[in-house]
Design goal:
The protein is an alpha/beta fold. The protein has helices spanning 8-26, 35-41, 56-63, 81-88, 100-113, 151-161, 184-190, 201-207, and strands at residues 71-75, 92-97, 117-121, 134-140, 162-173, 212-218, 234-240. β2, α5 and β3 form a beta-alpha-beta unit. Helix content is 32%, strand content 19%.
């Protein structure tokens, strides 16, 4: 018998294992292949967000001048559609994903578009991203696939990555539209994330209460022939990090 739990990371790893069987059940691919590599391995799967076009909300932020070019990171970038858009608009872009298959596809797309993106094959928690350097942290579909026990680390990561006054933007499954609305505890009872978690406006305001809300709305649906991606089952959010002012010299 072994008692391997000594640190918080050990506990988190056990909980990851508890839910890992969910991916194994859903994955018909070769043994040892990650679920996400299997998922991105068939480019003709017909998944709407496989299309090489950016999220409509992200384009809106940039075109309205709410988010100006600077340094950006795309968390869970998949085939790179949003990262490539940001690079094309003058951002210095890092893009992170667990799936090397997805990143290979993203790199092909970036080369075809002449876009310079630094792709990192890693967990977002182990990607070695520098603290306080990002003017934009973007997440399109990462948060809603994280188990609840990884959420505190995600929130800490976002807060650490953002430069003062930087923006955090998100698209995720919307309550009443797509994703599971079960209480967090139920995912462990069922040993499954049930395809992803749904979030409400109230959920997002609570989770990101350390940031300043800029815009929170449903994603606008876009026709199939649109140059941007938009689906009504997603919710979009834009928050801003506070700008820290220097303390009074007399303060201690």
């Amino acid at each position: 018998m072994q008692r391997p739990v000594r640190t918080v990371d050990d506990v988190l790893g056990l909980l990851d294992q508890l839910l890992a069987a969910d991916d194994e059940r859903r994955q018909p691919g070769p043994a040892g292949e990650s679920w996400w590599d299997w998922f991105y391995g068939d480019r003709d799967r017909g998944i709407p967000f496989f299309a090489a076009k950016p999220d409509e909300n992200l384009v809106s932020y940039v075109e309205r001048g709410i988010v100006a070019p600077g340094r950006a990171v795309d968390l869970g970038c998949g085939p790179g559609r949003n990262a490539i858009y940001l690079a094309s608009r003058g951002f210095e872009v890092d893009a992170v994903d667990l799936s090397e298959v997805a990143l290979s596809w993203a790199a092909e797309r970036a080369a075809g578009a002449g876009a310079q993106v630094t792709f990192r094959a890693a967990s977002i928690f182990a990607a070695g991203l520098p603290d306080g350097q990002f003017d934009l942290v973007y997440d399109s579909g990462c948060l809603h696939h994280l188990p609840p026990h990884r959420r505190p680390a995600y929130l800490d990561l976002v807060n650490r990555l953002l430069a003062p006054g930087g923006h955090y933007a998100l698209t995720c499954f919307a309550v009443g539209q797509m994703g599971s609305e079960l209480a967090d505890l139920e995912f462990y009872r069922q040993r499954s994330l049930l395809g992803g978690l749904a979030f409400s406006e109230e959920d997002l305001r609570y989770l990101f209460s350390d940031l300043v809300e800029v815009e929170l709305r449903p994603m606008r649906p876009e026709p199939e022939d649109s140059a941007v991606f938009g689906m009504p089952y997603l919710i979009t959010a834009l928050f801003r990090a506070p700008v820290h002012t220097p303390a009074d010299p007399g303060e201690r």
